[in-house]
Design goal:
Elements: H1 16-37, H2 42-49, H3 53-61, H4 74-84
Helix pairs in contact: 1-3, 2-3, 2-4
Length: about 100
């Protein structure tokens, strides 16, 4: 059995690790850029997001170990995104205090 997405591609035909690695690399670069633009340390952001500093470092470098890209949970990405949300029109209910 396979999953067929809306574009007709079979999930079983896609090298998901290859595609995820490129998305994870872009995600890590954006996290690092937003964090440094706001003057936040890895330790501070990680503590506020409820994750370890080493996990945040792995996400920013897109590195889990030598053989795999970082693969964070959706809740981890959500917490980091809420903390880094920079829009002036930000909804205060989305911010993590």
């Amino acid at each position: 059995m396979f999953f067929q997405g809306s574009l007709g591609a079979r999930f079983s035909d896609v090298d998901s690790d290859q595609y995820w690695a490129s998305y994870a690399f872009a995600l890590g670069e954006k996290i690092r850029a937003l964090r440094t633009m706001q003057g936040l340390s890895q330790a501070y952001l990680a503590e506020r997001a409820g994750i370890s500093r080493s996990l945040l470092s792995n996400l920013e470098r897109n590195s889990y170990n030598r053989n795999r890209a970082a693969d964070p949970t959706l809740s981890t990405i959500y917490r980091i995104a809420c903390l880094l949300y920079t829009s002036d029109a930000a909804d205060d209910s989305l911010r993590v205090d």
